[in-house]
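Problem statement: downstream parser choked on a complex file, so we are re-checking the raw output for the nickel (II) ion run. The parser issue turned out to be on our end (a line-ending mismatch), but while we're here, posting the original submission so the record is complete.
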Amino acid sequence: MFKGMTWQRTVLLLGIVLTMLIALLVGYAMQRSFNEGTTTTSGKALIGGPFELVDHTGATRTAADFRGQHMLIYFGFTFCPDICPTELAKVAAAIDMLPENANVTPVFITIDPERDGVEEVRSYAKAFHPRMVGLTGTPERIAQAAKAYRVYYAKNTSSDSTEYLMDHSSIIYFMDPAGDYLDHFTMESTSEEIAGRVREEL
Ligand code: NI
């Protein structure tokens, strides 16, 4: 093969190269089947899960308390200057487009528990819709709930003022009566689109 190489060394080298190639191929095939397995067999996205928070009346509320009703859940904070009010108004408008007996509960969960206590989430949620449930909790419990819904949030300390803003993802989650994820809506979704999608499930 190469000058000065014995045939034994050439065979050994070829053997090593072949083994490495096979290992790479097997690894690739395993990775592929693993990926396919997780996307095709799970079916439902892994969004949602148990939480234990405090509602706008001061009562403890767990995810199980909402079984039997659809939910439209939004994570935000009451000091939010723009996006949260827009999105919650959209949820409220969508609720009003549904039949009156539709069992769909709009839920606001704060990601700023330091400032949003029971009273803050109560007045905030009720400003958008009389049936909206406001939820707060300890920072740990809020973190658990946000993690379950894959919500990102972080204190924005870039401004010099003592007031701070929260960076957070803005997604409206649509959950079924078993507490499982059905769909989600973004800032591009309209109230009409949300109401239309919800109606399909009622
Ligand atoms: Ni916001």
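For whoever reads this later: Helices lie at 7-42, 83-97, 118-128, 139-148, 191-201.
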